[in-house]
Specification:
Elements lengths: L11 H8 L1 H16 L6 H14 L3 H14 L3 H11 L7 H15 L6 H9 L4 H23 L12 H10 L4
Helix pairs in contact: 1-2, 3-4, 3-6, 3-8, 4-5, 4-9, 6-7, 6-8
Length: 177
Amino acid sequence: MAHIDLLNDMPGILGLLRFRPQTAEPLMQLAEVLLRGESTLTRGERELIAARVSKLNNCEFCYNAHGTQAALQLDGGWETVDAVIADADGAPLPDRLRALLRIAVAVQAGGRNVTRPLVDAAKAAGATDTEIHDVVLIAAAFCMYNRYVDGLATWAPAEREQYAEPGHQILTHGYLA
């Protein structure tokens, strides 16, 4: 049960967005730009970054929601997502994405944990300055989203399958629908 009366029974951030539409719009605009806007990172890669950070933050709603988005858009589906969660360095990923995930993990632990060697390694693996910027911003934003969802004790569906239908809706219509 949420810490406050959300006046709805929607899970995770969905209940919070419905409760406070004034903050919902800018939060969803940010998610739309970060996860679906123009980028040299694929939508699946960006969703995977959001899922990885959310898992590290123990935010089950955001992990499953964005893990679903990543699974729908990446080769290998949930098998790839699960491999990244279990061992990102050993997962079947391009070196560039592996290096960018290391930066995301550093951001999750604290922004000052992003070091010159991490950035240099990402650049050596082919990451651009814009990609590095976007990964830092995605990871930082998802720390905020995760704390928002969990800080108000929203509920999360327990089974991955329960995220599939909303996942297809987002895949088709985006975060602003």
